[in-house]
């Protein structure tokens, strides 16, 4: 009788768009990492190469996860991703509040995490078009290869410079019409660091997050991570 391992990751599947191999090991566990390397041994030899492979082909990565048994607090999110190639488009990072009366004519209400979603139907593609139409002023289609590089080139310099000067929290609490720009702040953080803001928050990398968020006062750290 073969007993299959049940892995219990300490983070959601967005970890696959988080370019830090040490965080992968810390949050997924060595057994999970070993299993991933085994499954992708035809293209990678270690966790560093695994991370880079995912960054090159994020949408295709989930094919190699079929059959994985996952438990723990993020079980439902993992099963949805493994079984159907879907990741929720909602924002994850709970940005520290800063007063912001800014309004940005940029509609991006899809998390970078949604890049992991397999666009195998019109409904999934429609989410991109409906919730992030501004993106398609900069690119013709969602990139299937090296999206981080593509979006770093595509996002206008003024938006990224605004985040550098005002801070990511300022962007997050600014508005597009009646909505906050929390998704957009996640994008800008990801474009600059290659890491997901909510994962940096989850592992206690507050110095990076806060200094990149206009040196926001460090309070309420225990509630900075919000499940999608």
TrEMBL record:
Name of this protein:
Uncharacterized protein
Give the taxonomic lineage as stored in the record: Archaea, Thermoproteota, Thermoprotei, Thermoproteales, Thermoproteaceae
């Amino acid at each position: 009788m073969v007993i299959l391992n049940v892995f219990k990751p300490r983070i959601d599947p967005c970890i696959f768009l988080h370019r830090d191999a040490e965080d992968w090991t810390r949050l997924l566990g060595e057994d999970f990492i070993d299993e991933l390397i085994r499954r992708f041994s035809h293209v990678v030899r270690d966790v560093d190469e695994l991370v880079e492979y995912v960054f090159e082909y994020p949408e295709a990565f989930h094919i190699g996860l079929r059959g994985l048994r996952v438990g723990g607090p993020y079980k439902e999110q993992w099963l949805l991703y493994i079984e159907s190639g879907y990741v929720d488009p909602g924002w994850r990072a709970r940005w520290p509040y800063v007063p912001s009366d800014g309004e940005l004519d940029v509609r991006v209400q899809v998390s970078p995490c949604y890049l992991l979603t397999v666009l195998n139907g019109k409904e999934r593609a429609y989410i991109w078009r409906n919730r992030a139409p501004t993106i398609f002023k900069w690119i013709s289609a969602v990139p299937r290869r090296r999206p981080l590089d593509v979006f770093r080139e595509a996002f206008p310099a003024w938006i990224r410079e605004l985040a550098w000067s005002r801070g990511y929290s300022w962007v997050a609490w600014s508005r597009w019409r009646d909505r906050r720009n929390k998704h957009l702040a996640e994008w800008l953080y990801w474009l600059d660091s290659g890491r997901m803001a909510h994962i940096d928050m989850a592992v206690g990398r507050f110095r990076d997050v806060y200094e990149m968020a206009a040196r926001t006062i460090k309070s309420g750290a225990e509630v900075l991570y919000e499940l999608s």
